[in-house]
Structures are given as C-alpha cells and as structure tokens.
C-alpha cells in the first residue's frame, strides 16, 4: 500500500489518506461570509478524494483580513454557511479544516484580482497592526505597534474564532504562523523590534504564538487536532531560521500541537528563494527528525510519485498541494489510479472510474 493512501490518525480524527488541500485564499467573500463559490470550490476537492481540506486563511477579526474579500470567522452569523460547506465535505469522507489567520501588517491590501498594495480608507481599507511600526514595503500600510491590550485582543480573537470553528463543524484547526502575517511577524527579528516581553529573545518572539496556541487549546476539544503552519526560514541573513523552527516545533509539541505544516518565506520582500520542485521538503524533514513532531510538506509537489516519495522517505507525514489542486480537483482519485490503489469514487461518478491499468500518469 503506498504511503499516500495510508490513513493517518491525529487525536480522534482519522484522515483517509495523506493528501491535503493546502489553504488557498479565494478573495471571494463579502464581509467575511462564505458563499456558493466556497461551497463548490471546497466541495469539489472533497468529491475529488482529499483526506483533509484546509480552508483558506480565515480572519479572526475584520482588521486581520489580508484583503476586503477574505473569509472571516469573527462573528456568529458567519458560522451557518461554513457549517453547510463542512457538512458536505464530511459527507464525502473528507475532513474539513480551517486556517485561522491574522494578517498583521500585511492586512488591508488589494486582492490579486483588484490591484496590489494598500487599500486606502476611501476604498474600504482599515488601520493595520503589527509587532512594530514598520511597513512590509513602501506600498503596504504603515502599521501601528500592538500595545498590551491589542495583544490580548488578538489572543481573545483567536480563542473566539476557535469556538466558532467548532460550531461550524471544522475538525482541524491550523493556525497561520507563516508567510509574514501577524504571528510570523512576531517570530522574526526582521519584523519584530519590540523591547517588551514579546520581542528580543527567541522566547519573547515566540510568546504570542504560544499564547495563541494555549488560548486555542483551551476551547478546542482534546480529541481534535491542532496544526501550526510556519515559515521555517525567512531566507534572509539575520531572519527567522531553520534552527529556531526546530526549537519552536519542539515547544509547540509540548503545548498540544499535533503537526507542523512547513512552508517558508513571506516576511521579507524579494528574499532569494530557491523555488523548485519540493524546495521546502528539507525543512519538514528536519523538523520531523529533530523536534520529533509530525510534519506536512508543501511547495511545488505536483505528481503522485513525488508526493509518495516524500512520505516513503520519512520526510513528512502529510503532503499539502495548492496549485495542483486548482488544476486538478480530483488529484487524489487519479493518484490512486496511478499508484495502483483501489479507492472509492463517489457513487455518482462510479461509472467513470478507470478500470484498466495504464502507464503512471496516463489518464
Ligand atoms: C491562490 C492561492 C492562495 C493561497 N492562499 C493561502 C492561504 O490562504 N494561506 C496559506 O497559508 N497559504 C496560501 N497559499 C500558499 C499555498 O497554501 C501553498 O503553500 C503554496 O502555493 C505552495 O504550494 P503549491 O506549490 O502546491 O502551490 C496560497 C496559494 C495560492 C496559489
């Protein structure tokens, strides 16, 4: 049995395979509310056989949105549509997860469909916050440094969002600690220049993330898994690095985190990132080996054979695919076929299930 189709139990939740839909902003919400687009987008990938579907960065507060069109989970009224989507995903045998997020100093920006950089107040933009009063780039908003009360609000917002996530039927929470958004901004010495207990040493820079994890775990049931996505490196001298990521992952393991989703970058504009097939897998491998925690690998994983090799080599426990899932919502069904594994197709599609062995990759 290929590893890709071995079930994985995380606490009380069993994923039917190791293939995960990586969180992907759709920039299609209004006032944070999910709609038919999200139902069909996420639902299609559940029909396509993914083991776990992590809904896009979903803001824990309105000011934590990347763009005005981001999904949100900051008010109870946003829950019922999410519940409907999750009920559908669950009925397909897939597990619904949500990425809870706060964009920090990278908030209030145009979606890629509408522009780039800061959305001004006149067009619906809002004041943004960060660890320090330093903008990401010249065309991003100038943030205000969070004070103690602001930090407490962030923690409370994540806790309330986790409660709503439960009400919405999500079975996995992923905290977004990557890509230069708020939690990553606190981790990295390149964006965090605070002199209080949230800045300076590794312990201080990691404090906010650890407090958010603790607040989330307070309300998130024991039998449901908690994942944290990190950027394992800023790919920049003097920035957050792989050694600190290993140290952080070991700490997170003791605080009730079950798996680290290992991405990189996003906190430094124009960082020299050696993008190529599987370019981030090395970090998932290192964290898994050295921190002794399960990991997910992501980044330019596009073929069943490569995905299988990552798992078979013991480099990660899950593989997350983003863009390949936009090209091919049925990736897991075809991967099963290519790897010679018998999986159930939705009864409605049964008549189209490939029955004759073909060369790998051939459809
Ligand atoms: C359209 C799009 C939206 C994305 N939105 C998010 C997001 O909401 N949260 C996140 O952590 N990463 C986001 N990403 C990054 C992906 O989850 C993934 O880490 C990255 O695309 C690399 O994987 P890939 O090579 O399989 O696309 C997004 C990527 C794409 C293409």
From TrEMBL:
Gene3D superfamilies, per the entry: Aldolase class I
Q: Per the database record, which ranges form the NADH:flavin oxidoreductase/NADH oxidase N-terminal domain?
A: 3-337
Which cofactor(s) does the record list? FMN
Q: Which InterPro entries match?
A: Aldolase_TIM, OxRdtase_FMN_N, YqjM-like
Q: Does the keyword Flavoprotein apply?
A: yes
Keyword Glycoprotein set for record: no
Any idea which UniProt keywords this protein has? Answer: Flavoprotein, FMN, NADP, Oxidoreductase
- State what protein this is by name: NADH:flavin oxidoreductase/NADH oxidase
